[in-house]
Every structure is written in structure tokens, then in C-alpha cells.
Design goal:
The complex is a heterodimer of chains A (298) and B (276).
Chain A (H helix, E strand, L loop, with lengths): L2 E12 L2 E12 L3 E5 L6 H8 L7 E6 L6 H5 L1 E4 L11 H12 L6 H7 L15 H13 L5 E5 L7 H16 L3 E6 L2 H7 L2 E6 L2 E7 H4 L5 E6 L2 H8 L5 E6 L4 E5 L5 H10 L4 E7 L3 H11 L2
Parallel strand pairs in A: 3-7, 3-8, 5-6, 6-7
Antiparallel strand pairs in A: 1-2, 1-4, 8-9, 10-12, 10-13, 11-12
Helix pairs in contact in A: 4-5
Chain B lengths: L1 H12 L2 H33 L16 H9 L3 H20 L2 H7 L4 H34 L5 H6 L2 H24 L2 H24 L13 H6 L8 H7 L9 H24 L3
Classes of the chains: A alpha/beta (298), B mainly alpha (276).
């Protein structure tokens, strides 16, 4: 796979705070790469470093296998923190400025304004926009000229639920067309819905990275009880989705690889001669899961 | 260069504050030029109250003296502060709106960003100089009875002096803009320095406390204003026995240019080093 971005051991310190700590990442072409972490975990600092806004204290990074310069940034569309535009200019002129810097023509401007639902406001000054509209203009500017890579820092920040759904759809659509996407978010749910790869950051350190389906696998568990715990344990092991179990005092906790319905589980065990005296489903919220991930790595 | 200028012009094309300040600047520039003779003669009238033989009224709009007279009156502090404020607003806006970050993220290098501001300064200086040269030429033609080419070109070097004055003064403002990054702070510090701090420093360095007479004239803002000095008004000059500037001194031009070069260097160096 073609490497789009490789980050090699970068560190950045602000006074006593280690914002980024020996971080290494590799993003290959076509990935939807999520950088997940709580506030202050170094996501924005990392993105600012790879866009030449901030100088790293140590380490290096490469775009498209080359030493980065302004030309590599022209191939990247990005939304960093707050949407930054000239308040006294309308979105069309603001996007013309982006196109001028990137050496593009103006013919893509109407398309991105339409995509982000701003075409009706293309004559209004940027300062009259609501926050959600400003954020959408930032996304429009990132999409301008169909860049090879899209960097999105908290792209759905400040949007209403409808706007969030719309932007997520848009990101997936752009990704489907082959654009590599690097997205920072503190929302586990968002990363899970959009990304296929993820790196989890905490206090500037990478805890782990890999496929979303593996790293963020959510396995629900059941608490089961029976008069005969041993045969219960051996019967439940036969379930095709069985992953592991933990024996407690008079119940066992069973983890499954995929979603299992309580009724089906009961029927499955009954067929194998096990009569349950207790069955309760244990759902873990995504946030709980995330906290567990963090705890396990401390 | 064309690309960067095009981007800068697009940023200011519909920016009201720019056009209001630019308009005010040109009004004051024209007023400065038109009021100069009145101001001089007012001075003469005041002086005549104490003189046994009254000095005659002056005509300062004749060739070749008109070049120097106009270059002086068109570059007094009160007029020159306008383009300086415009430049500081244009630069600090980029930090206030955080658009400098967006420009860099989109693929402008930090050096190109600095250069684009220098180009706009150059453009403003060229346009103002052309305007100055044309209006002075017209005034000169209108007030000189027998014009010869020799008279016109005699003191035309003061047009270059005007250009260097306005260019370097804007570069000082550019320096304050990039260092302060905040519009209010930049304008306040620059204005305080130009009108209060440096004049105090100037007289302090001239005072018996320091004893070294020459140093005061090397202060940065003073160096800019010394490029085009007090107008030569032959009669006044003879009367008062003053040693006034006859032509542009190239050493005098080099000094503010040197200060400007140092300031540009510091701006490049700090922007490269500091995070945006």
C-alpha cells in the first residue's frame, strides 16, 4: 500500500506539558484514519505539526514519501480547529483566495458550496454566518479541488444533529471516491461510524492503533446463572459467537464476538440441556469501553 | 510576485476600513500639498512681528524647489501615519482572523506570506509616489513662469527621497505589525514611538547629559524624516544663516533602508521560529 503520511517519533512540549510524546503513525492511501483521544491528548497539536503550523521539538514526518513543503500542502484539504476566513468577504471570494493559494481555477467553487449546502448564502459576508455555517464553509474549502488527502479536526463540532449526519455522509462519500481521510475526534462513536483505521492518543502518547473493527470491538456480555454451572460453562463454549467467560460466585459472565440476542441464547442453552436460573444482558456504553481501553494501557 | 499581489489585492478589494483610511490619506496628502504655502507664509507673518524689516511672502511652488518643498510637506508625521496604520491593520488582521494559519495550511509558505505583505507595501509606495510626482509636476508647471527642462530635473531626486521615506516608514509599521500581532497594540506602540518616545529620546541624546550630538540623528524614525529635510526657501535661508539640505543625500537614504532591511530580517527569522 502506498504511504500517504508517515510520522516518525515526533514530540512537542509546551512548558511542562508534553503535548505530543514520541508519536509515530502511518497512514496509507485510501484509509479513513481516525485519531481518537480526549481533549488535550495532542490531536490538534499533531495535525498542526504535519501542516507546518507548529514546529516539533523532535522527530520528522513525510507527506507522500517526500520531505514536506508548501507543494505537498496544496494536495491536502484541511479543517483545523476553528474555521478561519476573512469576515468581510463572502464565501465565494474566501474560496477564491484558497484556490489562488493552491494554484487552482475557480470552477470547483460552486460545487463545494452546493455540497455543503451554502450555495444560497454565497453572497453574504462570512461574519454573518452562524457557527454551523462557518464550519461547513471550512469543510467546503477543504474539499475544494478534490484533494488527495483530507484532514479534519473535529469536523462535526458545533453542528446540529442534521448537520452532523450530513457531514458524516459527505465524508464517507468523499472517502468512497478514493480520498484518504485523517480525522481527529474525541467522539468514539464518530470514529466508529466513519473510520476504518484508528490511533488512540492519551496525553500525547499513542496507546495503540489498528483497524477500528479490532481496536474498538464492542462485545456485549451476558451474566448467566444455572444450578449446574459446569455444564453451563461447557455448553456456552459451543456457541458460534463465544469469545471468553469469567466465573463469578454463582454466575458466569460470557463475552461474545458479535451481537447475540438473549432469547436466542436461552434457546441455544436449553437445547443443550442447560436450564438458566439467571440471565441478564450487560451493555457497555462506548464511553465505558473507551475508559477501559485507557485504563488497560496505563 | 504577481500571484501574491493578486491574493493581497483580493483581500483588500472589498475591505471598507482599507478604503476609508486610504481615502483619508489622500485627502491629507492633497491638503498637505495645497496648505504648504499658506503654512509657510503664516510662519513668515509670525516672524515679521519681531523683525525690523519684514520678510516677503514665499512662493514655494516653483521649479526646481517645488520637488523638495512638496517632498517635505507630503511626508510629515501626521500624514505618513495613515499608510503605516493601514499596513499594521492588514498584517495584524491575519493574526486576529487566524487567516495566516489557513493561508499556510492551504499551501503558502511563511516566507511567501511575508513577501506578499512587502509587495503590497511596495505597490502602495509606487502608487503614492506616482501620484505625488504628477501632482507636484502640475503644481510646478502652474506656478513657474519660464519653465526649462533643466529647472524641472534639477531637484527631481526628491521624488526618490519621497519614495524611500514612504517605503521605509511602512516597513517600520510592517515590523510592528508582525511583532505585536495585535491591531490595537501595534498601532498604539507605533504611534507612541513615532510621536512621543523617539522625540523624547532624540532630545535626550542631544542634551548635555549625553554630549554626543550626532547620535540623535541616527534614530530610526528620525532617519526616515531626514531623507527629505526642511524645504529650502532661499530668502529665509540667507536671513537665518541656516545650513539646509540642497539635495538628497545617498547616505541619508541608506540609513532608513538599512533599518528596514534589519527589521525585515527579524520578521523572517521570528516567523520561521515561532508557532502560528
Amino acid at each position: 500500500m502506498e504511504t500517504v503520511l508517515s510520522i516518525n517519533q515526533i514530540s512537542k512540549q509546551y512548558g511542562k506539558i508534553q503535548a505530543v510524546n514520541e508519536l509515530s503513525l502511518e497512514v496509507t492511501k485510501g484509509q479513513i484514519f481516525g485519531i481518537l483521544g480526549p481533549n488535550g491528548s495532542g490531536k490538534t497539536t499533531t495535525l498542526s505539526i504535519i501542516l507546518d503550523l507548529i514546529k516539533a521539538d523532535q522527530g520528522s514526518y513525510e507527506w507522500f514519501g517526500e520531505t514536506p513543503d508548501k507543494e505537498s500542502r496544496k494536495r491536502i484539504g484541511s479543517v483545523i480547529e476553528s474555521p478561519n476566513f476573512y469576515p468581510y468577504l463572502n464565501p465565494t471570494v474566501n474560496l477564491q483566495l484558497v484556490a489562488d493559494i493552491k494554484d487552482f481555477g475557480y470552477d470547483d467553487i460552486d460545487r463545494v458550496l452546493q455540497l455543503t449546502g451554502l450555495d444560497e448564502r454565497k453572497k453574504s459576508k462570512f461574519r454573518t454566518f452562524s457557527f454551523g455555517m462557518k464550519q461547513r464553509l471550512a469543510i467546503a474549502s477543504a474539499l475544494l479541488g478534490k484533494p488527495e488527502v483530507l484532514i479534519l479536526d473535529e469536523p462535526t463540532n458545533g453542528l446540529d444533529p442534521q448537520g452532523i449526519a450530513h457531514i458524516r455522509e459527505l465524508i464517507l462519500e468523499v472517502a468512497h471516491q478514493g480520498t484518504t481521510i485523517i480525522m481527529a475526534s474525541h467522539l468514539l462513536d464518530e470514529v466508529q461510524k466513519i473510520c476504518n483505521h484508528v490511533a488512540v492518543l492519551h496525553k500525547g502518547k499513542k496507546l495503540f492503533d489498528g483497524k477500528v473493527s479490532e481496536v474498538l470491538a464492542i462485545s456485549d456480555s451476558f451474566e448467566l446463572g444455572s444450578a449446574d454451572p459446569e455444564s453451563l460453562a461447557s455448553a456456552v463454549k459451543l456457541h458460534p459467537a463465544y469469545q471468553s467467560h469469567k466465573s463469578n460466585a454463582d454466575t458466569i459472565q460470557v463475552f461474545f464476538k458479535e451481537k447475540v440476542k438473549p432469547g436466542e441464547l436461552n434457546a441455544f442453552l436449553f437445547e443443550r440441556g442447560v436450564i438458566l436460573s439467571h440471565l441478564s444482558e450487560r451493555k457497555r456504553t462506548l464511553e465505558q469501553h473507551f475508559l477501559e481501553l485507557l485504563q488497560n494501557n496505563q | 510576485m504577481i500571484k501574491l499581489l493578486k491574493i493581497e489585492l483580493k483581500k483588500i478589494r472589498t475591505y471598507k476600513i482599507f478604503w476609508i483610511l486610504a481615502g483619508l490619506y489622500f485627502i491629507f496628502l492633497v491638503l498637505g500639498i495645497l496648505m504648504a504655502e499658506f503654512m509657510i507664509n503664516n510662519m513668515v507673518d509670525n516672524m515679521n512681528k519681531h523683525l525690523p524689516i519684514p520678510a516677503p511672502h514665499m512662493n514655494i511652488y516653483f521649479f526646481p524647489e517645488v520637488w523638495q518643498n512638496m517632498a517635505f510637506f507630503a511626508t510629515i508625521r501626521y500624514v505618513l501615519i495613515f499608510p503605516a496604520i493601514i499596513i499594521m491593520i492588514l498584517i495584524t488582521n491575519e493574526f486576529t482572523f487566524k487567516t495566516i494559519r489557513q493561508n499556510v495550511v492551504n499551501g503558502l509558505s511563511k516566507s511567501e506570506f511575508i513577501l506578499s505583505k512587502l509587495y503590497i507595501i511596495l505597490l502602495i509606495s509606487v502608487i503614492t509616489t506616482v501620484f505625488f510626482a504628477l501632482s507636484t509636476f502640475i503644481i510646478g508647471i502652474a506656478h513657474t513662469s519660464e519653465v526649462t527642462w533643466g529647472m524641472i530635473f534639477d531637484k527631481i531626486s526628491f521624488v526618490i527621497g519621497f519614495f524611500i521615506t514612504i517605503l521605509t516608514f511602512q516597513i517600520y509599521a510592517f515590523f510592528f505589525g508582525f511583532m505585536c500581532r495585535n491591531t490595537g497594540l501595534a498601532i498604539a506602540l507605533f504611534t507612541l514611538y513615532t510621536f512621543i518616545i523617539e522625540p523624547i529620546l532624540y532630545y535626550f541624546l542631544k542634551s548635555p547629559l549625553v554630549f554626543k550630538n550626532g547620535i540623535s540623528t541616527y534614530l530610526p524614525v528620525n532617519a526616515v524624516f531626514r531623507v527629505t529635510e526642511y524645504p529650502t526657501i532661499p530668502v529665509l535661508k540667507k536671513m537665518m544663516g541656516l545650513n539646509l539640505q540642497e539635495s538628497i543625500s545617498w547616505g541619508g537614504c541608506a540609513l532608513p533602508l538599512l533599518y528596514s532591511a534589519i527589521m525585515i530580517g527579524i520578521v523572517f527569522w521570528t516567523l520561521k521560529k515561532r508557532d502560528l
